[in-house]
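Batch manifest, entry 17 of 40.
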Amino acid sequence: MADTVKGTAKSEIKLDGVVYKAGDTLEAPKATIKRLIRIGVLEDPAVKAAAEKAAKAETEAAEAQAKAITDEATAEAGKIVKAAEAQAKELTDTALTEATAKAEKLVADAEAQAAKIVKDAQEAAKKASETKTTATTK
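Output type: structure tokens
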């Protein structure tokens, strides 16, 4: 008896009175399986296994590459965030320094103006007092 081998049906086929649906595995003499593979109704299990193995290897390689890209992007994003935080802190510190300087100048100007108003008021009071004294002595 001839060696028998297996093959997987690509579509529904009828062989020796048996109907095989797509995906079913059938066993037949080697010559018959080879002929059915050649005409495209069967898939060679060895070829299918090799294709699955190659696809798995490609998937693993793609996943490793995706992880490397993701890791690199995450690291780069971290650097960008740190730089942005440093720049924001610098801008905040600069704005705070400028605001403090302006506030101190405003306070100094207000104190100087208040001192001038007090001085002017004292001088006015002194003149009024002198005028009153001069008016009473006359």
